[in-house]
Amino acid sequence: MKRTLLISVLAVLMCGTINAQQDSITTDSDGGRKKVAVVLSGGGAKGMAHIGVLKVLEKAGIPVDIVTGTSMGSIIGGLYSIGYNANALDSMVRVQDWSYVITDKEDLRNQSLADRRKQNTYIFTTGLTFGKRDMTAGGIIKGKNLAELFQQLCTGYTDSLDFTRDLPIPFACVATDIIENSEVDFHSGRLPQAMRASMAIPAAFSPVRIGDKVLVDGGLRNNYPADIAREMGADIIIGVTVQGAPKNAEALGGTMSILSQIIDVNCKNKYDENLAITDLHLQVDTKGYGSASFSQAAIDTLIRRGEELAMRHWDDIIALKKRIGIDESFRPTILHPLRPKVMTEKQHVTSYSFENMTPQAERFLRQKFGLNRKDSIDAELEQQLTTSMRIDLFYQTAECRLVPDGDGVRVILSAGNRKSVQLQVGARYDIEEYAAVQLGLDIPLKTAIPINTDITLRLGKRLMAQGEVTIHPRSFTRPTFRYTFRRNDVDIYIKGERDYSILYNQFQAEFKPINFNLRYFNLQMGLRWDFMHYRNKLGSESSPQVTLENEHFFSYRAQVDYNNEDHWYFPTRGVRFHAEYAYLTDNFAQLDGVAGMSEVSGNWRRSFTFGSRFTLQPMFYGRLLFGSVIPPVFGNTVGGEWFGHYVEQQMPFAGIGNMEYVDHHFVAAQLQAQQRMGTNNYVLLRVAGAQQTDSLDELFDHKTLLGAQIAYYLNTMFGPVGATLGYSNHAKKPYFFLNLGFEF
Questions:
Q1: At what angle do helices 144-153 and 2-16 cross, to 10 degrees?
Q2: pLDDT tens profile 270-328
Q3: Is 667:603 a contact under the CB 8 Å cutoff?
Q4: 634 contacts 664 by C-beta, under 8 angstroms
Q5: CA atoms within 13 Å, Cβ hemisphere of 652
Q6: Which of 50, 118, 259, 743 has the fewest Cβ atoms within 10 angstroms?
Q7: Contact at 8 Å (CB) between 510 and 524?
Q8: Which of the 8 DSSP states describes residue 198?
Q9: Strand 590-591, strand 594-595: pairing
Q10: If we measure between CA atoms, which residue out of 663, 636, 674, 655 comes closest to residue 736?
Q11: pTM attached to this predicted model
Q12: What's the burial of 156, exposed, middle or buried (CB within 10 Å: 0-12/13-18/19+)?
């Protein structure tokens, strides 16, 4: 698990360092030297420069007795105060996926494949609250992922604490109460919550509510809290700020620049007064970067600029040591090096307690995970518990806190508000189907046994309405019932030329008593009913592929899916695998009076990355149909960019754009080269070959299908945007495809 590995790495870095901050204030052993405070300003991503400055202070042997900070300065300062030295902080910020951390997206590792598909289908999701007001609202981002990250990074310091007495280095941070328009200084409380409140940028992040206070970013009242450091007993103050020069009228040309100026102007409160009491002020040049510059390149540059600035002040820093009362050879000692309780091994559990959860929810977790019998916990169980709280019990946030208790830990499972009804909106355009819109409604039912209802409506050339009910019992499976209506208007091509189009309605009901999810893995088994109501056929009357006689089918189905790819559309590592078996009948046993049709299909893809930008992806796939009766509506079709784009049995093939029928046995191999250009631009080259036949023993006696295509795509928040140009020896004509948005 990525985060457990991250914390383990940080623990090694902290325990191996000798130039780290001291564990407690020991003025007697230091000969009565003066107390030193480091004050870190707010500034969003620009605050990464603080880490570079801290590296130089450690190198110079400057003791740190007090840390204060605001916003990003509170995050860097808070972690520093509990033992994360500068090298550990450097490693931590570089390995984080900030595009995930600063959003409310679900961690892909904690989602079912169906939830991952939703996340990569809809461009907009919002909660619909009826009656009771959502007290977690108030910003575009609720900050769920930030809060969880702070909770994990502060392991061992998540309970209510006195920040002066209980932390290795005394610490304080600042927030703003927008009820009283007053400064709120955190000297105690829950450290992760204090850090989260201090950086709650108004409108961007939801405020933190504590009692009668509604807390937002502390920069609005005190963005550089040197006065607090002085009040805490600091004799020497070293301050780091990352604000740029005020913008003039010509520079205020856009919405973001105006918003940034408003924040910067408000952040001037107490600024000059606090600079006046600073002994060494280090102003980092962050020109070219903003509060949201969380890219890897920006983080690297900002940390380097902080380090370079501090090195230019090396003589000033060394001179400051004399004022502190120590000589140049002095190095802070670690009396009790911090070793966060990294859950690489099981820890003994003394008790489990539950916060903000119903008795039914508590009973659900106790029974599902056998907590009454479990006397130990590790990182895997912690993740399973919080995931189940969010996915099975529909809580918006979930925490698992470990509080030292005698010879073990007390496990506190804390839940946020229950999820409201979620409205999801997706939109796309391509040159074959033109515009399409998809709406989703996710309705969690707060019953004794959790039940989730999904309603989906697709508007476009292909109309679809679907309702799905999933039961979340305490057993391993999640039984699912789904009913779907599709109105398909499909064009059928033969060797690149449109031959006919068919309009039909498909009614489908499916019951899956076996629906087992385990992170990347999903197993489904069940029974399905299909009714085909053919409405119209236009085009060549000589084409024998489709009959207009209405028909119904019953099929037994089993499928296995595995997907641990790191990206839904442009993966650089991981494997995707799908295998399915279906037995099709019209009376539960036979098809047209003979044995039913059997379908065996599957696809496998793996990504191999060379360097940081180039990826090779071999893929093998196919679909084999067995039986004396093969209904045309379930026959093999190929074409397009994705599996199941127009009809569920459709398979992609390089160089074939539109949907074409192929023989009953079809197997293919594809190799894709993916080159990333810049941050979100991709060039894709595909080559593919396939064999098809109606008799399996003659599979390699027929002409090999060959195809190739090149594509350019830009990965945007609205989905992949780009174009494809291809050619195959089947159609024998160029194929061009333009796509805007997620596939659905």
A1: 40
A2: 889 999 999 999 999 998 888 888 888 899 999 999 999 999 999 999 999 889 988 87
A3: no
A4: no
A5: 19
A6: 259
A7: no
A8: H
A9: antiparallel
A10: 655
A11: 0.70
A12: middle
